Amino acid sequence: MKTYYLLMLAAFLAVFLSACAGQPTAAPQTNPEPFAEQNAQPHETDATMEKGMLPMVDPLVVTGDIVMAGSSTVFPLAEAMAERFENEGFAGKITIDSIGSGAGFERFCVAAESDISNASRAIKDSERESCISIGRDPIEFRIGTDALAIVVSAENDFVEHLTFEQLAQIFSGDATTWADVDATWPAEPIQLFSPGSDSGTFDYFVEEIFDEDETRILNAPGIQLSEDDNVLVQGVIGSPFAIGYFGYAYYVENAGTLKVLSIEAVEPNQANVDNGTYPLARPLFIYSDAAIMQEKPQVASFINFFLTNVGEEVSEVGYFPAPEATITAAEQAWLDAMQQ
Predict the structure, then answer these.
(1) CB atoms within 10 A of CB 309
(2) Cα–Cα distance between 266 and 59 in angstroms, integer?
(3) CA 308, CA 303: separation in Å to the nearest integer?
(4) Which long-range contacts (CB under 8 A, 24 or more apart) does 323-328 make?
(5) Which residues contact 123 (CB under 8 A, 6 or more apart)?
(6) Cα–Cα distance between 215 and 223 in angstroms, integer?
(7) Using 50, 70 and 90 to split pLDDT, how confident is the model at 51?
(8) Which pTM value belongs to this model?
(9) Nearest CA among 245, 250, 156 for reference residue 194
């Protein structure tokens, strides 16, 4: 009997071992997810850039400081984008100096002290040459549109619109009182407020109204010039007989105390900017350089973030979205810079 049980046990073991031998050995369980997550971002970024799309930016992982300088017109938009970048996790420092487009290009193209130059006009050939002479090749990024605001105090109850000819009369000093412009208006002295000659807004106004002859406005009796648009705002608010001009965002911010004028019978608004009828609409830009963007990834990331999100911020600030085609061109300029 004992021998029987031993034989039965041997047979059972033989069958069991045979069955086990026919089954594949199970691989140890692993979780492939961490590896997939670790490697997804580079492949995704490469594929995205190949399709002409900007890669995603996570401000939480961006480090380093960024220096911007230039246009007072672009300043409120740049400030809003910097604040959003920081709110979404960027822990570095973004310095933005409002010094005028011309002074901004000097800091970028001569002193090489800034990473990004803000501008309310396109870079001049002479400025580009200065950049190239110090090893920088400026790249233009269109970020929005401004409807240059010609404003008077909200207490002014007689001016509603002006023509280019009347603007030239007023800002050259050819008309010294409002009655000189229109006999039905008060014979009160006109008080003039204008951005200074380092300002892209000044350059644009002179180009449009004085055919680039800045001496006419600079020689206007009593004109008050400032690179600080808030100084101009306060000056115009201070008298019902004052007039000035600056970026539309500064009007929006002070709409309760300022009145914006129609120019050539066209109001500055979204519809008239979009259809091209407002005669003082102009593009807004930021500039950088491929070498800067590659050597300072935080600069490239911020410009990417700026272009990706500016459409959600520009109207809140008081400007108007750039045409989609120009934003697409700006995105392509970013991609080209990063692939050099």
Answers:
(1) 16
(2) 41
(3) 8
(4) 326/142, 326/283, 327/142
(5) 105, 117, 131, 138, 140, 285, 287
(6) 12
(7) low
(8) 0.84
(9) 245
Of 143, 156, 157, which is closest to residue 191 (Cα–Cα)?
156
Hunting for tokens 């050995």 — which residue is that? Answer: 25
| Exposure letters 229-241 (e unless 16+ CB within 10 A, then b) | bebbbebbbebbb
pLDDT of residue 32: 33
End-to-end distance of the chain based on CA atoms, in angstroms? 88
pLDDT of 335 over the 70 cut: yes
Burial of 30 (0-12, 13-18, 19+ CB in 10 A): exposed
Question: Could you give the residue ranges of the DSSP H alpha helices within the chain?
Answer: 2-21, 33-50, 75-87, 101-109, 125-133, 164-172, 178-181, 200-210, 215-218, 229-237, 248-253, 270-274, 290-295, 297-317, 324-338
Question: Phi/psi at 260 (nearest 5 deg)?
Answer: -90, 140
pLDDT, tens digit (0-9, with 9 covering 90-100), for 211-227: 999 999 999 999 999 99
- Helices then strands, counting H and E runs in the chain, come out as 15, 12
**Rounded CA separation 199/204 (Å):** 9
Q: Position 17: which residue type?
A: L
Distance, CA of 269 to CA of 248 (rounded, Å): 9
Strand order in the sheet with 116-119: 94-98, 66-70, 116-119, 281-289, 138-147
238 three-state secondary structure: coil
The C-alpha atoms of residue 214 and residue 66 are separated, in whole angstroms, by 34
Q: Judging by DSSP bridges, how do beta strands 149-153 and 242-246 pair with one another?
A: antiparallel
DSSP 88: T
**How many angstroms separate the CA atoms of 98 and 112, rounded?**
17
